[in-house]
Amino acid sequence: MTSLQVECAKINLPLLVVEDSDEDFEAFCRGWRKLTVANPIYRCTNGDEALDFLYHTGKYTSSHPLLRPGLIILDLNLPGTDGREVLTQIKQDKNLRSIPVVVFTTSSNPKDLEICYQQGVNSYIIKPIDVKKLMKIINILVEYWLQVNSLPYPLYNNNNESQI
Questions:
Q1: Reported pTM
Q2: I want to staple 76 with a disulfide (CB 3.0 to 4.6 A). Which of 40, 52, 83, 120 is the partner?
Q3: Which helix (H) or strand (E) is 101 found in, with range?
């Protein structure tokens, strides 16, 4: 893959947001739209749905097998399978572990922070309550992860299995 192909792919890599709060998701989307970013956003509202999305099971069985997020924004406190378990499963799976995961949560518990970094989280952001601060953080998150940072682009073998 040429550097131009990598740059074009980077622009369109989907983002998976795992967030159960409609208000938090809407605030995230408002900030996202202001930045005019072209990456598509997929939302899952609980950990079980996120795992179905990533493994193409459940209601995502018929989704394109190569649909893989370039970045995962993960809330910790989710109904069903919580974000900590989702993070653990992602980082233990050889086909998913290279996907950067940013925890975006209200939890400032030092134990959560430690556990997430031990499990391999790439960043841990505590959601501010102030809307202006939230928009600033979303701007920084997008700028860093989608403009400054080079995200891994999945390479597939003939069986549509990631080789990363």
A1: 0.85
A2: 83
A3: strand 101-105
Q: Distance of CA 77 to CAs 25, 39, 69, 80, 126, Å?
A: 14, 25, 21, 9, 12
Q: Which two tokens stand for residue 71?
A: 């970045």
Domain ranges of the chain: 13-148
| Fold assignment, 13-148 | Rossmann fold (3.40.50)
Strands laid side by side in the 15-18 sheet: 41-44, 15-18, 71-74, 101-105, 123-126
Residue 78 main-chain phi, psi, to 5 deg: -115, 155
Q: From residue 142, how far is each of 5, 9, 64, 93 by CA, in Å?
A: 20, 16, 25, 25
Instruction: For residue 20, give every residue at least 6 positions away whose Cβ sits within 8 Å of its Cβ, in sequence order, or none.
Output: 45, 46, 75, 77, 78, 79
Q: What is the number of alpha carbons within 13 Å of residue 135 lying toward its C-beta?
A: 8
Summarised one tens digit per residue, pLDDT across range 106-158 is 999 999 999 999 999 999 999 998 888 988 998 898 888 887 888 776 654 44
Q: How far is CA 101 from CA 15, 79, 131, 157, in A?
A: 10, 19, 23, 24
pLDDT tens per residue, range 41-78: 899 999 999 999 999 998 888 766 557 899 999 999 99
Whether the CB-CB separation of 95 and 156 falls below 8 Å is answered with: no
